[in-house]
Backbone:
């Protein structure tokens, strides 16, 4: 069987679900998953479907064409239809922290993540040996404040060369430039080491320690031009006590960062996230 | 607007969602919530819909009749359609433990639970004062091993008199009789003080302590003839350490019992649970 | 047996634990619990002990005198020694929200909280009926912006009359005045409906909804003059998704508020919290 | 400074803490951590201390000798004193599952685990490539039911050759033989993929799915001759719903297994666990 994933997003209107499910039925598809959400404040409708079709006569382009004519245009939908088996191509940006990189590559190696990782890009040499262990190409693009523009150009060239679909910042310690954000809108995933919006910016574990919180967290979000302000994909927390030092916070936080980032990658790769109004709809 | 909740359960077939959503659209309804689940092992289909209709011309009986003819019969559905505003009537069975009773009555008083509580039934006098505090009628039905049958008769008479829809056992320390279970199938909710299937039966906190577990739990489930074996509605856990005594387990467990039972009551009252194959589908 | 709780707090020095445990042994006490903490950044030492003594010849005043001379003075300790069986007297301040009040009074009624509740104070009449249900005196002290000063005087008079040890703000919607804070330093417990420091101030659930977080929380803390900035005693969180409305956030949050506040009350009542440097040490 | 860790375990007696802390003070040590536990049911006393000593004149053997004479003998203690900086040597046993192995080796590589890993032992060839990636020696010891005895002999020879302190079974699918258990008592850590005592034995995810639980878990424990019945070190859980398949359970469970096993390894390596009565005391 061929499986496709349909994502739909439009203003809320009567009869959308009936129209879409009728269409799927009319072309011989079987719906194996349907979830929808109506944001009643904003009057926006979201839907995610997984359908399967018999192998013969299946033609993705025809489905897309007809969907566009018969459904997307009349209902003014934002939409996408993708083959489930097609793995998105992910680039990893890193600097010097290695724990998230090890975790992603380990999960990738065990087959947990439905992605391809054609390239790791870094402004430092340090983690090239980790990339080598997992036999992933490592591209070193150093830059300074002054050469940031040319560095970005090289990054974009590499991303294009490897036909990258989305980017993961695995504790990458640099601010992403507006050009790159514009090219990969809602396609750059960051991991921030606090339960945002608490403790944005630098050294969140130190701030958490000084404030005396009893819970620390991590947050994965899509990158926008406002630092640490993008749409949140996933968060998690762990308990701390007075007996934990800043070093303990950092150590416990590493586990959160790994888990939260891995979950966000998986959700994105499986086309389970939709973005609007600086928030996410996550059909998990 | 009139709001209704539709629950459907049948063998999986192509085109069910389209047929149902078409029908809703055809009678002027607007779907505000739809969730579905396919058990692909058993080939069973489940759906829950919330729809709203304009007040004029709305006739629940007509909707039910047409639904039955046009959808339920052709697809061989088990189904129910209910007015969302109609609050189910719940009886509480208690013995001597008061923490769950206090919690349910407090939540009821603050308006958190969409239910009516016409009656509290007990085999002991002890908690009549709690019932009185919240101005709920309290019916004392004492019985012994020998008089259990007549006790059950009286229970059933009281349940019928108060037109009870479902029953909650709030740490009721008696085994429910098969007659009563048969009358209220999947409509009697129990709270068991362990994460089932670990530690079924009596004194689970003692067993958990002796085993040296690092986590204790509570489980709410529908009552079946097999003790502590019914379909699980909700579970939760909390961490314990070597420093906790059995008394600490019991104290921490009380919070779990309260929360888990309250959640199960809310899910059932909002018609978000469906039972099949000794499991629940919970559309939350 | 007589049981006492000793709390100690001083600058870190060699030999403190030996000196204290020797002293307990020398007067015939048996240590049944000892926990200590060293803040190595600030070089501060904290200790909590529970000891038991045979009933005869036990004299609390003598123990205190000798402790003061032999230990507290030489080591420059802040300290307290209290009989474990002596229940602290707690006042509850409320306005119109009833869920935390119901929860505290229910736990109090079931014997879960080792406290006395001699009085409930409110600037509104609304919750007097809840107090009446649980047979707790209710004192109505209305005030306006203009009469806040005289209102505070009346509050303090009532607190003194009832010999109140500590105060709980059970979703009390007024800012506590500096005079009252000064009188009850680290003895006023507030519950804030967010995981502080995220979303301080008014309407945190609305802010959380608008930010699109995947986790909401509640925080109990001691009240200081800086709003929502006092030492945190306890926090907890629950997961939310895109499918939850602001009303759902509020409903789910109620459970957090109840639990977190109840835990903070219990910790304080059992003399398990110590405050320094705007943080808490919680020996739980 | 030299740091040592002292673990003590004896029947409960008056004055133990005073005696131990006096002794530390008398030899110029500074206690930087002390935690103790009394099991009042069994009248057993446990203590863990971390102390530091100036580098000059520090002699571990002398400390041990004096501790033995002055404390351990009079109080009939079970005890150990170890240099904190000395990393225990851990062997990993694996079969074909790779996720826990990847996780352990990644954490080891990032420096999170205070251990040495001199050898990985397996009854299959499959994971030799993972070992090679991380440059850890891999020893293949195949055996059948018939050759299990000689296989065990070879295992023991390898463990002795590499001077192994403790063993981790990283989803090793073989039952450990009594001889090996006897040699490494409370020094073999297993990860079981359920919240024990629920679902012991084979295929726990399948059993959990069939029972319809709403929570799945993982448990790390010391291996004893009773399968899945040894002292529990750490457990954790995650929520599941009706919408998760057995494959989803397995996938979500992998994260639990990794985390729970890593935490147990860390606790054991840092000498924070003590075993008695088939339970653990975990000073974390």
Residues:
């Amino acid at each position: 069987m061929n499986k496709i994933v349909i994502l739909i997003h439009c203003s809320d209107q009567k009869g959308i679900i009936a129209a879409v499910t009728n269409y799927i039925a009319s072309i011989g598809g079987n719906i194996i998953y349907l979830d929808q959400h109506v944001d009643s404040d904003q009057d926006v409708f979201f839907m995610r479907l997984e359908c399967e079709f018999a192998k013969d006569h299946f033609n993705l382009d025809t489905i897309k064409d007809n969907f566009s004519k018969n459904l997307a245009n009349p209902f003014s939908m934002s939409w996408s239809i993708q083959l489930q088996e097609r793995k998105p191509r992910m680039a990893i940006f890193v600097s010097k922290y290695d724990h998230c990189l090890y975790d992603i590559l380990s999960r990738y190696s065990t087959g947990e993540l439905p992605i391809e990782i054609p390239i790791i890009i870094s402004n430092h040499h340090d983690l090239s040996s980790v990339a080598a262990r997992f036999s992933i190409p490592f591209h070193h693009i150093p830059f300074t404040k002054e050469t940031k523009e040319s560095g970005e150009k090289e990054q974009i060239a590499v991303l294009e060369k490897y036909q990258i679909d989305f980017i993961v910042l695995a504790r990458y310690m640099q601010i992403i430039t507006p050009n790159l954000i514009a090219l990969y809108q809602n396609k750059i995933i960051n991991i921030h080491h606090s339960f945002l919006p608490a403790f944005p910016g630098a050294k969140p574990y130190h701030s958490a320690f000084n404030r005396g919180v009893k819970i620390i967290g991590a947050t994965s979000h899509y990158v926008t031009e406002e630092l640490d302000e993008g749409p949140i994909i996933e968060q998690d927390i762990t308990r701390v006590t007075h007996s934990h030092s800043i070093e303990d916070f950092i150590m416990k936080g590493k586990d959160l960062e790994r888990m939260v980032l891995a979950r966000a990658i998986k959700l994105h790769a499986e086309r389970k996230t939709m973005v609007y109004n600086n928030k996410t709809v996550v059909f998990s």
Q: What stands out?
A: Residues 156 and 180 of chain C are 7 Å apart (CA to CA).
